Amino acid sequence: MSPAPPLNAIERFRRAADALRGHGRLGLAVSGGPDSLALLLLAAAAFPGEVEAATVDHGLRPASGEEAAFVADLCRRLGVPHEILRAEVDRGRASLQRAAREARYRALGDWLAERAIGTLATAHHADDQAETLVMRLIRGAGIGGLASIRAKRVLPAAGSEAIVVRPLLDWRRAELRAIVDAADIRPVDDPSNADPRYDRARVRAQLARSRWLEPVGLARSASALAEADDALDWTAQRLEEERVVAGQDQLVLRPGGIPPELKRRLLLRLLARIRPEAAPRGDETSRLMATLEAGGTATLAGVKCIGGETWRFEREPGRQG
Prior knowledge:
By secondary structure, this protein is of the alpha/beta class. The protein folds into two domains: about 5-215, Rossmann fold; about 240-315, Uridine Diphospho-n-acetylenolpyruvylglucosamine Reductase, domain 3 (2-Layer Sandwich). About 50% of the residues lie in helices and about 15% in strands. It has eleven helices and eleven strands. A six-stranded mixed sheet has the order 3-2-1-4-6-5, sandwiched between helices. The chain has a five-stranded antiparallel sheet with strand order 7-8-11-10-9. β7 and β8 form a beta hairpin. The longest helix has 29 residues, at about 215-245. It is elongated and about 65 Å long. The mean pLDDT is about 90.
């Protein structure tokens, strides 16, 4: 069996994980890369007998089956139950990485439900957080997007009630790699991590070359933005309670005096109340707000929206379900 991580690293991980996880067993998403292998080694040492692992095989690379088998063998040596999950990826999507991510979380959600595990840990770390923040800054994201990778959130898979936790968000990539190297384990090398066709790989290369862009500072900023995003959501919820009246087959909002960002959040909340599957893009939401501010009428995501001194929202006529 591979050497366990240093005691101080195990304790550091245990404190972070305990602050995020609930009761019961902890599921681990382990790809075989250095970050997820460090997660596996730390979790197995911190919570012996309480963790299970899964590796998602997307079948996108010829070596993916061998890599999944490598993780399975390592888990067997560590005494961690492990399962290989097959995921069907829609290769026709414009973003293959996004399609793979969605398929991965669907597979993991099904596995968690089958194993009755309520919490999944992933190996996202400070460098990942910094890369995500920079990518979203470039794309002009708002506060919600700039909050980047959350330490804790609901699993992004339809129908799942599991929670995803990221106990390694204050660890650097090099720290995690050192844990794997010390265990004399050779991790999987995914060539897409350095493929300049992908945005993240390009940003990663730029951050690595920069002497003044500090990933830990960027990660702290993302954490502060996450707190601000939560505060705005908290405020929007209370404004909804104060300013929204449910009438017959419609919702009515009094928008006067509400700052634009909070109005935008209220708008999204009301669209979702009428059509829970509504997920408009940011530009669509901005255009709808401008129409309502001007007193106009528009339909978005199956919801008819009528502006003026009050904003009214109702299901689009003829739309069922």
